[in-house]
Design brief:
four-stranded parallel sheet
């Protein structure tokens, strides 16, 4: 029962019936739900590196949801839906997304710094678009976390920030007043994407 709870998909293919009346699985694949691995340290120990890509490996090691793509506009958001929308809007603006990165709902400086460190480690990234919608997360806290992360990392490439939702005006004002010159604020997702694409082209 415990083993069944950790699995969400398994496949045996091919399965043969031999001349001496034995059934033999010649190949098998098992997909394991990572959220259940804490109950199965024996299975966790079998896990191999998921990728040879340095950014994806770094993100995986630090618990960041990240997928590398082929473009030059780095993207960070606080939820899978808003990140997917950001990818589409960057493409609509004529750019190419460099990644999918969902930083989750956290707004503290350490979480933002971890996400930014992954993005900034990709030499193909020419600009960043940070797209945050504050629901439970407050945009002023996100802004403070972003400033602390930038101070820690010393990033110099262009960064475009779009904040909307809870305490968005306060968050925008914090960035406008205290962020370094390479960080700009845009009011909408589309204008942020257009600005990020434009800055990436200028940096190429």
């Amino acid at each position: 029962l415990e083993f069944r709870r950790v699995l969400f998909r398994s496949e045996i293919n091919p399965l043969i019936w031999t001349a001496d009346d034995r059934v033999v699985a010649l190949d098998a694949k098992v997909s394991i739900d990572n959220n259940s691995l804490y109950r199965h340290p024996d299975l966790a120990a079998l896990k191999e590196s998921v990728t040879d890509d340095p950014q994806e490996r770094m993100a995986h090691e630090r618990g960041v949801t990240y997928v590398k793509l082929d473009g030059d506009v780095g993207i960070m958001g606080n939820g899978a839906g808003i990140v997917m929308s950001s990818l589409d809007v960057v493409a609509l603006a004529g750019g190419q997304p460099a990644n999918f990165l969902d930083a989750g709902g956290g707004s503290d400086a350490e979480a933002v710094a971890t996400a930014l460190e992954v993005l900034l480690s990709d030499p193909k990234v020419k600009s960043l678009m940070i797209n945050i919608f504050g629901g439970i997360t407050r945009c002023d806290q996100v802004a403070e976390g972003l400033l602390a992360a930038l101070d820690k990392l010393g990033a110099t490439l262009p960064i475009v920030v779009r904040l909307d939702g809870t305490a968005a005006p306060e968050g925008r004002q914090i960035i406008a007043d205290r962020a370094p010159a390479n960080v700009v604020v845009e009011p909408t997702m589309l204008s942020a994407a257009q600005r990020a694409v434009e800055l990436a082209k200028e940096a190429s």
